[in-house]
Amino acid sequence: MAGRxxxxxxxxxxxxxxxxxxxxxxxxHDVVVFDNLRTGHRESVPEGVRFIEGDLAxxxxxxxxxxxxxxxxxxxFAALSLVGESMxxxxxxxxxxAGLGFALVDACIRHGVKRFVFSSTAALFxxxxxxxxxxxxxxxxxxxxxxxxxMVERALLWADRIHGLRSACLRYFNAAGxxxxxxxxxxxxxxxxxxxxxxxxxxxxxxxxxxxxDDYPTPDGTCIRDYIHVSDLAQAHLAALDVIRDxxxxxxxxxxxxxxxxxxxxSVERVTGRQVPWLxxxxxxxxxxxxxxxxxxxxxxTSWIPRFVTLDEIVETAYRWRxxxxxxxxxxxxxxxxxxxxxxxxx
Length: 347
Known about the structure:
- Belongs to the NAD(P)-dependent epimerase/dehydratase family.
- Residues 8-254 form the NAD-dependent epimerase/dehydratase domain.
- Pathway: Carbohydrate metabolism; galactose metabolism.
- Keywords: Carbohydrate metabolism, Isomerase, NAD.
- It comes from Nguyenibacter vanlangensis.
- This protein is an alpha/beta fold.
- It has a single domain, classed as Rossmann fold (3-Layer(aba) Sandwich).
- 35% of the residues lie in helices and 18% in strands.
- The chain is built from ten helices and 15 strands.
- An eight-stranded parallel sheet has the order 11-6-5-4-1-2-3-15, sandwiched between helices. Strands 12-9-14 form a three-stranded mixed sheet. It has a two-stranded parallel sheet with strand order 7-10.
- Strand 1, helix 1 (15-26) and strand 2 (30-35) form a beta-alpha-beta unit.
- The protein is globular and about 55 Å long.
């Protein structure tokens, strides 16, 4: 992106959001992070970045923040994101993701925001026979989580047609890894992502890993997923911001290569030099057998090219982060990185 711009990032203290904030700052932009810190970490926000602790449900606060413009764009990551939890509490996800997403889009329109980047998901697609999922693959969400994200995508389509709000819906596949420089990484509580769980099992920080389903129609019986390094994912957001100066877009963001759960275990064993204890477990509701991206459209329409192309490279960055931060942001260098402009804002 040419020139210095000012962006609001909701959920910018979370895993993917914090890596996008770092990429925006590295590119010389001004960033304001808005996060309720339920799953995010204030320590992940770079020094010098203004931090506002708040919830999207506080409509007056959201209006007050957006009124403090002008904004060159809003990047929206704040959401609930657990497929299994959404199968137990579907309307919680509809309200938190779709309802509050609608309200944020409406507020952006009222305050004259022209560009909006939305953190969407490959969970839109559910079960599919397609070897590679394109942006035109039929959308059949396999969970309320995926459904809630699709609802926001539809809202953004109408926001463009009626109000001219240009948007990019980025359909993530499996974000993984950590900042190559070790500044930030993955710290969910509880952790639900496969790669950090496998690393912890290898390090003896947890018991045997449970693999959910070993009877899928895949070569080794375990689910196949497309793992995209979180820093490559962050760069896709910057690329999309350039495109939506003129038009709205929908992009898959992945590598085009699928790896099974068992292949993830073998990769962690290679990188760490340790054996991973594991046990088979029943399938989880809402989990498709295979989700692998065709990201040709993103590559063709932008300059985006993933830097981390092998699973071992991705795992290695996650492993280095875990060794340096055995308790996440509670220990290691991350715990000392308190933002110098953090604040709590009242409407």
